[in-house]
Amino acid sequence: MSTDYTERYIFEAEWYDKIACILKKFYLYYYPVDNTVELFDLKTRKTFLRRTKCDGIKAEDFYIGAIITIYSRNIKIIDFADKNTKSKLQTITQKTFAIIKPDVMDKMGEILKRIIAHNFHVANIKMVKLTKEQATEFCKGKESTQLPFIINFLTSEPVLALELLGDDAVAQWLKLIGPEDSSEARKTAPSSLRACYGKDNIQNAIHGSENSDAAENELSFFFPDQKSKKKGPDNTATLKNCTCCIIKPHAIQQKLIGHIIEDIQKAGYTISAIQQFHVDSVNAEEFLEVYKGVLTDYGAMVGELQSGPCIAMEITHKDENCDIHTDFRKLCGPMDPDIARQIRPNTLRAKYGNTKVQNAVHCSDLPEDGPLEVEYFFKILDEM
């Protein structure tokens, strides 16, 4: 986006007021020059929020389907509101759909690092286990003599569904992943993802939408709009011998998703479920209620959790005798990153945290909290 002082972008947006049970519609104004926003209520025809600066919001956050957190309210952008905004932004920012397939799920952190390094923004993420019916529906219209083998492969183990955002995203993503046959990719595009991680033309590591229409259809299949009556594939949370880890909004904004996930996987842990959530103030307060009156930073912790999208993960270990809660807390490190850097420099908070509030990750404090926190995100919030 340009930073012309006179420039502004206007979007149609909506926010569901859970207290009043009303869907409110707005014009959302964004001013790139000073990173300010303004909300105009379309029903009352009055200004809902005067032009104000919102920390943590960046120009690239504004696109159709995006959820912008403004003072604890998750505002969803549903369309461009004027021709100027549409003409300038529609061709710049594009969405596409991707799948990290079963054969490389153990390398998803490493792959996510490469995706983000190539200027893609991960707008949504969810681990799912496809049924045969879902995989068949997803592959509908695709022409291949090996379709039965592809369906069997896609349903063999969980996959990671991704909504990616970027400039000319569909074409650039296809370029990054390379030819469908991994053997061919190694010959013609040796640095592509399929060349580096794929085995053949079925176990080829990555899926990418063929065109913008396919991307739209595939995104709606895996990430259906809340207003639609469709339900995407279920998450993969097991609630068994697990603990909870949440990548905080600031770490997502700092493009640390891949780094954190890679460190967790390299430490020997299994991420058995992962999903992005937008947590509102009520849910943030409820989830962190155990810290109320205990930690002076409770209010700031609530503010951080609701400041943007977070990524919740169910963490397990292949060794059933592993004390998953205690061991994983050691990997996360002390709550204060400054202390962590002194005494546990290789922990997640030491490497990726900024402050006691923006300390990269949340992890369950008590053994019994792990399954409960996983359940809160993957069973309660996911079904709201």
From TrEMBL:
What are this entry's molecular-function GO terms?
A: ATP binding; nucleoside diphosphate kinase activity
Q: Which Pfam families does its entry note?
A: NDK
Which InterPro entries does the record associate with it? Answer: DM10_dom, NDK-like_dom, NDK-like_dom_sf, NDPK7, NDPk7B, Nucleoside_diP_kinase
TM region(s), chain numbering: none
Keywords from UniProt, A to Z, are:
Cell projection, Cytoplasm, Cytoskeleton
Answer yes or no on keyword Amino-acid biosynthesis: no
Subcellular localization, per the record? Cytoplasm, Cytoskeleton, Cilium axoneme
Q: Where is the DM10 domain?
A: 5-93
Give the record's GO CC terms.
axonemal microtubule; centrosome
To which protein family does this belong? Answer: Belongs to the NDK family.
The name this protein goes by in its record: DM10 domain-containing protein
